[in-house]
């Protein structure tokens, strides 16, 4: 059985977060003393990846709520780092990093979260990394590759993984593929025939231990963004990430559901390209990223930050939901399935999760997941009709709700 623990706290005080995490560790069978002992070994490189997608609210958002319904709270990161440092016993290193949205201001993010305060807290070195090789310093230039600003990115370089025929994009005509930039040549070249290429940041990919700390949050393109969708932040070359196919279904696109919506978007100031359940492309990319990560053996752990969660117009414009929840497991896939169900959605209606539920090489059986909520085993967690936290989703995603 794969164990997933759900515990609760109503605040982000470091002591409260660590207490809830200790309950999670107990629920999944980790020892009370040095709970990461089996996960993290002295001498390891430990990579901790939060969700740092944004440094502020975008002007197009209809509200400006707590930014911590968008990004991981620093006290959850610090709590996890505390346990990792304890297990390292003075040997090894901790890296905390992400490849945020290309328009995020990393200095602003550091000032807002104050996470750099932990750089000298432990007896092992701590490095905080902005993994982006390109940044957009003016939002009006978003999507224009030639107007991006070069950035140092991952100091250790990158790792190229070609999934070939294993890719869920294999066999699809790539001529309409769209990545981060309007210039689509690189996107098409990365996903043509048996070339199905993803370039991971080496510091993350080569780590002995990968600890993912995503946000509990809805997403307008894939339904929910957690561990697997968060792997977008592991990729150095963002233009390899196919987000949709240009156009509408009648012309073999999935950017918009109709020709009318596609034409109207050309005049709109704010667009929502690919943001509907009929997007049959982006979920394939998410599944590919998970497959790509599994090509290298490493140890995994996840803590999903849902103390303040995000519902509605995620990933950039959600509304805060005081879910008071942390979800932990050593299986990112199992944790994502549990988190989606706990949000009141059917994981089998989230396409990238549904692909892995059942019989395939990377798959998981929902019946093999043991869910412990507040130290109590929850029978029939997935089969019940309860909506649990009952997250609000935007209208086009209403069918994913239980």
Number of helices: 10
Low-confidence stretches: none
Mean pLDDT across the residues is 96
Major sheet details: 12 strands, mixed
Shape: globular
Distance between the termini: 24 Å
Strand content: 15-25%
Helical percentage: 10-25%
What is the number of independent domains? 1
- The number of strands is 19
What is the string of SSEs from the N terminus onward?
EHEHEHEEEEEHEEHEEEHEHHEEEHHEE
What's the alpha carbon Rg, rounded to whole Å?
Answer: 20 Å
Going by helix content, strand content and strand pairing, the class is alpha/beta
Descriptive keywords:
10 helices; 12-stranded mixed beta sheet; 3-stranded antiparallel beta sheet; 402 residues; single chain; alpha/beta
What does this structure look like?
The protein has helices at residues 14-28, 74-88, 106-113, 185-190, 202-205, 227-230, 259-265, 282-293, 332-342, 351-356, and strands at 2-8, 45-50, 93-98, 126-130, 134-135, 149-150, 158-162, 177-178, 191-192, 195-201, 209-213, 215-219, 223-225, 244-245, 299-313, 317-321, 325-329, 369-373, 376-377. The model has no long low-confidence stretch (mean pLDDT 96). The protein has 402 residues and is α/β, with parallel strands linked by helices. Strands 1, 2, 3, 4, 11, 12, 13, 15, 16, 17, 18 and 19 form a twelve-stranded mixed sheet that branches. A three-stranded antiparallel sheet has the order 7-10-9. The chain has ten helices and 19 strands. It has one domain (2-156, 203-228, 296-400). Helix 1 crosses helix 2 (74-88).
């Amino acid at each position: 059985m794969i164990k997933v623990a759900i515990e609760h706290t109503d605040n982000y005080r470091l002591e409260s977060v660590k207490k809830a995490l200790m309950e999670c560790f107990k629920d999944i069978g980790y020892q009370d003393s040095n709970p990461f002992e089996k996960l993290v070994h002295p001498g390891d490189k430990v990579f901790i990846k939060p969700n740092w997608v944004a440094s502020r609210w975008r002007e197009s958002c209809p509200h400006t709520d707590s930014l911590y319904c968008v990004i991981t709270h620093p006290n959850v990161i610090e709590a996890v780092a505390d346990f990792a440092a304890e297990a390292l016993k003075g040997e090894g290193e901790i890296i905390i990093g992400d490849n945020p949205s290309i328009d995020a201001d990393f200095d602003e993010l550091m000032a807002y979260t104050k996470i750099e305060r932990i750089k000298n807290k432990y007896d092992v070195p701590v490095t905080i990394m902005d993994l982006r090789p390109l940044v957009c310093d003016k939002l009006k230039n978003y999507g224009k590759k030639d107007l991006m600003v070069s950035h140092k990115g991952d100091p250790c370089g990158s790792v190229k993984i070609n999934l070939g025929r294993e890719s869920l994009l294999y066999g699809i005509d790539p001529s309409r593929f769209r990545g981060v930039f309007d210039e689509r040549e690189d996107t098409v070249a990365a996903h043509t025939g048996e070339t199905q290429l993803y370039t991971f940041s080496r510091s993350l990919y080569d780590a002995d231990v990968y600890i993912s700390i995503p946000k509990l949050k809805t997403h307008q393109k894939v339904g929910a963004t957690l561990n697997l969708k968060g792997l977008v932040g592991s990729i150095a070359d963002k233009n390899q990430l196919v987000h949709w196919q240009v156009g509408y279904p009648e012309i073999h696109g999935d950017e918009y559901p109709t020709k009318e919506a596609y034409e109207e978007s050309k005049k709109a100031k704010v667009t929502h390209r690919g943001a509907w359940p009929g997007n049959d492309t982006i979920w394939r990319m998410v599944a590919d990223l998970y497959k790509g990560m599994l090509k290298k053996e490493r140890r995994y752990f996840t803590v999903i930050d849902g103390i303040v969660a995000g519902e509605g117009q995620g990933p950039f414009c959600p509304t805060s939901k005081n879910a008071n929840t942390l979800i932990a497991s050593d299986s990112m896939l199992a944790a994502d399935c549990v988190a989606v169900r706990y949000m009141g959605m059917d994981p089998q209606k989230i396409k990238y999760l549904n692909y892995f539920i059942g019989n395939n090489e990377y798959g998981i059986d929902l019946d093999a997941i043991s869910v412990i909520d507040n130290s109590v085993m929850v029978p029939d967690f997935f089969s019940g009709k309860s909506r649990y936290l009952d997250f609000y989703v935007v209208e086009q995603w209403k069918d994913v709700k239980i």
